[in-house]
TrEMBL record:
Domain PDZ stretches: 261-330, 391-436
Classification via NCBIfam families: degP_htrA_DO (TIGR02037)
EC number: 3.4.21.107
Full protein name: Probable periplasmic serine endoprotease DegP-like
Superkingdom per UniProt: Bacteria
Organism: Oleidesulfovibrio alaskensis (strain ATCC BAA-1058 / DSM 17464 / G20) (Desulfovibrio alaskensis)
Major subcellular site: periplasm
Signal peptide region: 1-26
Subcellular location: Periplasm
Pfam families: PDZ_2, Trypsin_2
PROSITE patterns: PDZ
């Protein structure tokens, strides 16, 4: 091959690459080089540290203290016994996450789970020279129900920022970019598209996630999901550990409202009407003589709460709140929670085939109220988070499908990977009948046991019902 032929091939390849780049740009693919260069300085790495008490499970202590003596390896066992009788020093537990700066004076958005329980939160900010500057951060406020947190640092200089975009304007297939700190690899940039909108992954009462195939890994939590205009349209929050190319972000429009309230009040106050609600399936619609499954069915009205005072009854179907049409239980929950305590709300409900209008003065949604207000699919117990369990009470229909004669017990609807519940082989669909030999029919009952006897003993024993069989599983409450 002569020089002329080689030059011709090189010219053709250059032309092909240039044409491909031009076509990609024409097809709407953003310039990720420019986006990452512009957004990168406003993205921060978050490091946390907390003291964790080393607890010895009570059953281990009892084994070594009460074992028969004169056995082989007595010296070996005696060493363990002496170890168990000594006070254990707390150890430092460290974790990593991401965040982004929203104001030049140092306000930073991240996930609540990134900084929850931390004794020290430090933030690495990219300096003008490209080297990280480290600052200790103050936690301004947190909101566990949307998994958002607001931090503040004093850098002594104006900082680069990222603006919020309009997540309601997103379309499936749109290009996005994520920047974060996966596995401690700071300022890693990944790109992909919007895979879906409005995802409910059963992580909380206000699930309305953006799904993306931009690569998101542990450590990306709290980092921004950025559109082609360089605006934050989501806060990266969750992944499906068993899948690839499946990540979830909190929509920016939801996050913006929460962050503004945290900045102003250091907490989020949400509306509450005092009912339990559920979706309407086809059979329920038939039984009630409804033409469709639209609306939220009231399962119970709590005495003395706003709905009760306004005259709403169990069996009513709420189809509208103010000007908002209600499609289902989650829709009603979010609509009411978006209002403030003390606000007036006009509620339209269907009762015996006729529409009725009610005027309510909203109460404030609190932790206890939130547990009662959530739909059957969303009800969870924050107190069992250390066990890696998501629980709720069963419906009569579910109890019948599982072969149970009553709705006693708590249904397992989710297991966190590598958690004590996962290690004990608990599974979604299991029913917890007893905890430490005490019946548990409500979240509150289990919470008292977790925080009481179980916390003292360092372990909790569950009686489990699974596919017609009943057995016990023991979970350690010791910090891993």
């Amino acid at each position: 091959m002569n020089r002329y032929t080689k030059r011709l091939q090189l010219t053709l390849l250059t032309t092909v690459f240039a044409l491909a780049a031009t076509m990609a740009h024409a097809a709407g693919v953003p310039d990720f080089t420019a986006l990452s260069a512009k957004a990168g300085p406003a993205v921060v790495n978050i490091n946390t540290e907390k003291s964790v008490e080393n607890k010895i499970p009570e059953q281990w202590r009892e084994f070594f203290q009460n074992r028969p003596h004169g056995l082989p390896f007595d010296d070996f066992f005696n060493q363990f016994e002496r170890f168990f009788n000594q006070p254990q020093r707390p150890r430092k537990q460290r974790s990593l996450g991401s965040g982004f700066i929203i104001s030049p004076d140092g306000y930073i958005v991240t996930n609540n789970h990134v900084i929850a329980g931390a004794d020290v939160v430090s933030v690495n900010v990219e300096s003008a020279k490209g080297e990280p500057d480290t600052f200790e951060a103050t936690v301004v406020g947190t909101d566990s129900e949307t998994d958002l947190a607001l931090l503040k640092i004093d850098a002594g200089r104006p900082l680069a920022t990222l603006p919020f975009g309009d997540s309601d304007a997103l379309q499936v297939g749109e290009w996005v970019m994520a920047i974060g700190n996966p596995f401690g690899l700071d300022h890693s940039v990944t790109a992909g598209i919007i895979s879906a909108l409005g995802r409910d992954i059963r992580s909380g009462p206000f699930d309305d996630f953006i799904q993306t195939d931009a690569s998101i890994n542990p450590g990306n939590s709290g980092g921004p999901l950025i559109n082609s205009d360089g605006k934050v349209i989501g806060i990266n929050t969750a992944i499906i550990a068993s899948g690839q190319g499946i990540g979830f972000a909190v929509p920016s429009n939801l996050a913006r409202r929460v962050i503004e309230e945290l900045k102003t009040n250091k907490r989020v106050a949400r509306g509450w009407i005092g009912v339990t609600i559920q979706d309407i399936d086809e059979n329920t619609a038939k039984a009630l003589g409804l033409k469709n499954t639209r609306g939220a069915l009231i399962g119970n009205v709590l005495s003395g709460e706003p709905a009760d005072k306004a005259g709403i009854r169990a069996g009513d179907i709420i189809i509208k709140v103010n000007r908002n049409e209600i499609s289902g239980a989650s829709d009603l929950l979010r609509t009411i929670a978006d209002l403030s305590p003390g606000d007036k709300a006009t509620v339209v409900a269907v009762r015996n085939g006729a529409q009725k209008t009610f005027t309510l003065t909203l109460g404030e949604r609190g932790t206890e109220m939130a547990a009662r207000d959530e739909t059957p699919q969303q009800k969870q117990n924050a107190a069992t988070g250390q066990l890696g369990l998501k629980l709720r009470q069963m419906t009569e229909q579910e109890a019948g499908q599982l072969g149970l004669e009553s709705t006693n017990g708590l249904l397992v609807v989710g297991i966190q990977q590598n958690s004590p519940a996962a290690m004990a082989d608990l599974r979604p669909g299991d029913v917890i009948l007893m905890a430490n030999l005490k019946p548990v029919n409500t979240v509150g009952q289990l919470q008292k046991i977790v925080e009481g006897d179980a916390a003292k003993r360092g372990a909790i024993m569950f009686q489990i019902y699974r596919r017609g069989e009943t057995f016990f599983r023991t979970l350690s409450l010791s910090a891993e």
